[in-house]
């Protein structure tokens, strides 16, 4: 396996990666970084969690001339949350080179962002709308921007931003280097690449694959109220050498860490609201084996590549099967066996089944001893795995569907099952009528029969899910 040094990165970046606890490149980093360092345009097709930010960010930072104060690189993101996340990562990677990275996004005072740009920004990370606004005001000038990145391009398309993306690219220097990263490649994105990129290298990386032979996967069904005590019980029974416990939110990480401490378990917390020094201290201590239990968010745990992790515990079930795959891939490494334990509430059985189907695996009820692998169901009969609580549903005939955008996502604790339940409870649709639910950070997508879309929008808008009032509208292309 190559190291980051083998990819041709500069010494300051290598030192930053070592300081942050990054051991070896992921597949997308291994393939994309050398191509970008050689000046090629790159199309990277990869899921979230595969290390895309470092894949485009490290070559970008090596490209920057620190003697020039002008904007030399632009990263476009679909959402404010991703903008902030990418900015934090680039600042951490580029700290030893003294590179100025400025984030610009909607929902914050534009005058403050203008002031930051005037103080000297060498890299700008921004949401599409705010970048266009600043360019129209002549506060953001791209005449020296020779490196442009489109991150999560398919989300930009889903949100209806592609005309603005075209507008921005048309005003960037024609001799620029362009990198485009997207989980999927719909025709509109392929057309954009043909029009705005020069002879791009295409790199496709699949999501991490489960090492089923070395990871024993199990679940525990408990109520929300019982989850902390159930987790403490599992940790005391399993007595892991090292374990990463995943919680969904930063607040949830802090709350869970305090609760486990009250129950007599020493844990360390890791999330994005901690100072860089605090995060580094936790990661170094955990990597060195001085800490045994780590409670973390998915974003904060990126870059933790530690062979000694014997257990992964999903205190909060992931929002997507791909995230589950990425989480449990942190154990069972280097020929060692590992255990992955997921806590679910009764309402989350469907989410667990979706993970099983996606990962082509079986997740069995937890017991203190590793369970024998159950027999493979015959003819796809999944009922042999565990009893199901389902009700007969009346499905509509296949026909045209309409994609709706829902004002709420992971940041509000919303899960796919919540979206489905809100629609079923407030309209006359059945669960089988609802398709392709996709929960993102601040919003979600769902497809419903075109003939019923108006009814769903009218009846579900205003309903509350996890304290958030939903607003539905047709997603614009």
Short description:
The chain folds into three domains: 201 residues, P-loop containing nucleotide triphosphate hydrolases (Rossmann fold), CATH 3.40.50; 156 residues, P-loop containing nucleotide triphosphate hydrolases (Rossmann fold), CATH 3.40.50.300; 74 residues, RRM (RNA recognition motif) domain (Alpha-Beta Plaits), CATH 3.30.70.
Description:
The chain is α/β, with parallel strands linked by helices and 477 residues long. The chain has three domains: 4-204, Rossmann fold; 215-370, P-loop containing nucleotide triphosphate hydrolases (Rossmann fold, 3-Layer(aba) Sandwich); 401-474, RRM (RNA recognition motif) domain (Alpha-Beta Plaits, 2-Layer Sandwich), CATH 3.30.70.330. It has 17 helices and 20 strands. α3 crosses α4 (80-94) and α14 (321-328) crosses α15. The protein is globular.
In whole angstroms, the N-to-C terminal distance is: 42 Å
- Uncertain residue segments: 369-392, 394-398
CATH architecture of the largest domain: 3-Layer(aba) Sandwich
% residues in beta strands: 15-25%
**Whole-number mean pLDDT:** 83
The biggest sheet, with number of strands, parallel, antiparallel or mixed sense and barrel status, is: 7 strands, parallel
Helix/strand-derived category reads alpha/beta
Predict the CATH topology of the largest domain.
Rossmann fold
What is the total domain count? 3
The total beta strand count reads 20
DSSP helix fraction? 25-40%
Shape: globular
- CATH C-level label of the largest domain: Alpha Beta
Count of alpha/pi helices: 17
Strand order of the largest sheet: 3-4-2-5-6-1-7
Question: Can you tell me the CATH superfamily of the largest domain?
Answer: P-loop containing nucleotide triphosphate hydrolases
């Amino acid at each position: 396996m190559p190291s980051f040094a083998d990819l041709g990165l500069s010494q300051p970046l290598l030192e930053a990666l070592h300081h942050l606890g990054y051991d070896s490149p992921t597949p997308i980093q291994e393939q994309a970084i050398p191509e970008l360092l050689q000046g090629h345009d790159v199309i990277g097709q990869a899921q979230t969690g595969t290390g895309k930010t470092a894949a485009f960010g490290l070559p970008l930072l090596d490209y920057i001339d620190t003697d020039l104060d002008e904007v030399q690189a632009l990263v476009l993101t679909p959402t404010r949350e991703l903008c902030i996340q990418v900015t934090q990562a680039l600042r951490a990677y580029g700290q030893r080179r003294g590179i100025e990275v400025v984030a610009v996004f909607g929902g914050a005072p534009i005058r403050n962002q203008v002031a930051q740009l005037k103080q000297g920004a060498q890299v700008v990370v921004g949401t599409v709308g705010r970048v266009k606004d600043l360019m129209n005001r002549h506060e953001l000038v791209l005449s020296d921007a020779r490196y442009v990145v489109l991150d999560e391009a398919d989300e930009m398309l889903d949100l209806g931003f592609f005309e603005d993306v075209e507008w921005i690219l048309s005003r960037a220097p024609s001799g620029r280097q362009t990198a485009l990263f997207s989980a999927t490649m719909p025709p509109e994105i392929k057309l954009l690449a043909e029009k705005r990129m020069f002879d791009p290298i295409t790199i496709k990386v699949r999501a991490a694959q489960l090492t089923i032979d070395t990871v024993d996967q199990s679940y525990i069904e408990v109520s929300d109220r019982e989850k902390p005590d159930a987790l403490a019980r599992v940790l005391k029974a399993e007595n892991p050498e090292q374990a990463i416990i995943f919680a969904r939110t930063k607040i949830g990480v802090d709350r869970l860490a305090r609760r486990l401490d009250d129950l007599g378990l020493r844990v360390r917390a890791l999330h994005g609201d901690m100072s860089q020094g605090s995060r580094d201290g936790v990661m170094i201590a955990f990597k060195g084996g001085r800490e045994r239990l780590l409670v973390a968010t998915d974003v904060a745990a990126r870059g933790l590549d530690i062979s000694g992790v014997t257990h992964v515990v999903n205190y909060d079930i992931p929002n997507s099967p791909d995230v589950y795959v990425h989480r449990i891939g942190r154990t069972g490494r280097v020929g060692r066996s590992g255990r992955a334990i997921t806590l679910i509430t009764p309402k989350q059985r469907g989410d667990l089944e979706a993970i099983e189907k996606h990962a082509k695996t079986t997740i069995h009820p937890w017991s203190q001893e590793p369970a024998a692998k159950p027999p493979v169901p015959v003819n796809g009969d999944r009922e042999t795995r565990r009893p199901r609580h389902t009700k007969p549903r009346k499905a509509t005939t296949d026909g045209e569907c309409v994609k709706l955008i829902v004002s709420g996502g992971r940041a509000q604790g919303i899960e796919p099952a919540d979206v489905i339940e809100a629609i079923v409870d407030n309209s006359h649709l059945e669960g089988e009528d609802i398709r392709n639910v996709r929960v993102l950070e601040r919003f979600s997508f769902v497809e419903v029969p075109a003939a019923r879309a108006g009814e769903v929008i009218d009846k579900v808008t205003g309903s509350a899910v996890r304290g958030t009032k939903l607003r539905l509208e047709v997603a614009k292309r």
